[in-house]
Amino acid sequence: MNAPNDTPRISTRLAGFALDLTVDAIPSAVRERAKHLILDGIGLAFATTAFGYADMTLAAMRELGTGPSTVFGKSGRLALRDAMLANGLLVHGLDFDDTHSRGVIHSTASALPCAFGLAEREGASGAQMLAAYIAAMEVSTRVGAVAQGGFHKVGFHPTGLVGAFGCALAASKLMGLSKDAAVEAQGIVLSMASGSMEFLEDGAWTKRLHPGWAAASATTAATLAKHGYIGPGSAYEGRYGLYALYLSDHATPDLSIATAGLGETWEIEQVALKPIPACHFTHASSDAAIALHREHRLAGDAIEKVVVRVPGPVVDVVCEPVANKKRPANSYDAQFSIPYIVATGLLKGRFTLDDLDAGALADPAVLALAQRVEYEVDPESTFPRHYTGEVIVTTRDSRRLAHREAINRGSSDRPMTNEGIVEKFYDNAQRVVSRDRADQIREAVLGLERASVEQLAGILRQPA
Questions:
Q1: What is the per-residue pLDDT across 186-230, written as a single tens digit (0 to 9) for each?
Q2: Is the pLDDT of residue 2 over 60?
Q3: How many domains would you assign to the chain?
Q4: Burial zone of 107 (CB within 10 Å; 0-12 exposed, 13-18 middle, 19+ buried)
Q5: Cα-based distances in Å from 391 to 256, 274, 282, 380, 438
Q6: In angstroms, rounded to a whole number, what is the distance separating the alpha carbons of residues 130 and 20?
Q7: What CATH number did the domain enclosing 364 receive?
Q8: Sheet holding 373-377: strands in order across?
Q9: Which residue from 58, 91, 116, 260 could staple onto 109, CB 3.0 to 4.6 Å apart?
């Protein structure tokens, strides 16, 4: 399976890393962080069960059939791949989940449903599930980072597109595949990896399905490989491999990133946590607006105009099309809207899940101010390492007020602590469950290495 120059292909090197990875080989701080990322994802999944699109998704999955696999926060079970699709939606649905900045990928939203679902089916230990989850995270984040932000430029959502490759190796690991079969799984999933950014045009719900689809596709690919199905050997560097096909001439990939530091440098430590429920690209601008609110307490009619400086590569995601961004049609539109989020921060000094409900979206003061919010490309941005943001307010009495956030809160250079993640978990989980119930979930997840996945599953499938 080697290339003509005898250098192992990327898929071979990634397969070797993932299949050989054991919990004992992972530094304790990385394991601890990984468990907290899982806890964050599960807290979000429980919070999402309260939203209508979650019920609609689960109803559709039930119509396709039931099965033995756990759905977070639900007593009813589904077939394995349908449960993965549902759990991915539950983790990612609020757009409040973690983000790897260089890969621009919500990696837990696919890695967790895949590792959990297969570990439950295979009767794996918590330690085995944790190792598979970490393998998926390390692979997906690196594979995403190779594109250097290029996937977004051509309209592909990296979370669905790239998550499939890390999940293919997590599935291969938990299913006990050989290295050759794990290589085949990556080649097979190349034909399944997908995720369109068209949802940005009208606030469609499709983005929420992407991580679960990545997990389900990866499981399909690994199962085919287990039975001898042949996939392309050069999934990444091939003439029609991932980067040539999905980037075309819009970006220059750095293939060395895919395998750099495997087993020595841990990308989990570079995963950013979200302090607000919106696209990560908006966070620094939101915090800048909130800081200006706290300092100046301006009324909406005192503001002449607002200019927000954002990194150039995020404009298409959170600033355009301008008309949609200035008047979000629904909560998803709002989560990707610099005008709405900045206007909310300036007037209310916050951005929370409550600012995504129907009443908040119709707030006339916020919508009026959003019409006066414009954007500029930030020439000093350090994107993608940091998702920078600056808000400049011109008042009707000609004052110029500005605040800049050069490093977004929650990023690897300004990280949320594990204690902060636990606090966020409780805030989200307790929207639908009691404190005692949330305590049980926290103890099970943070004690994962000492538990069976079936024990964890029993706790998680109790209804929210």
A1: 999 999 999 999 988 888 999 999 999 999 999 999 999 999 999
A2: no
A3: 2
A4: buried
A5: 37, 20, 11, 14, 37
A6: 14
A7: 3.30.1330.120
A8: 373-377, 303-310, 389-395, 400-405
A9: 91
Q: What angle do CA 262, 265, 271 make, to 5 degrees?
A: 110
Yes or no: say if 263 and 17 are a contact pair by the CB < 8 Å rule: yes
Q: What is the C-alpha end-to-end distance of the chain, expressed in Å?
A: 48
- Predicted confidence at residue 201, as pLDDT, reads 84
- 271 and 307 part of one domain: no
287 and 432 share one domain: no
Task: State the Cα–Cα distance between residues 91 and 43, nearest whole angstrom.
Answer: 8
Burial of 443 (0-12, 13-18, 19+ CB in 10 A): exposed
Q: How far apart are CA 9 and CA 20, in angstroms?
A: 17
pLDDT tens track for 174-186: 999 999 999 999 9
Residue 418 domain-assigned?
Answer: no
| Antiparallel, parallel or unpaired: β 389-395 and 400-405 | antiparallel
Instruction: Please report the DSSP string for 298-330 in residue order.
Output: --GGGEEEEEEEE-GGGHHHHT-SHHHHHS-SS
The residue written with tokens 């290339």 in the block is 3
Q: Are 89 and 214 a contacting pair, CB within 8 Å?
A: no
Q: Is 228 exposed, middle or buried (0-12, 13-18, 19+ CB in 10 A)?
A: exposed
Domain range enclosing 136? 10-275+425-460
Pair of tokens at residue 202: 């009208």
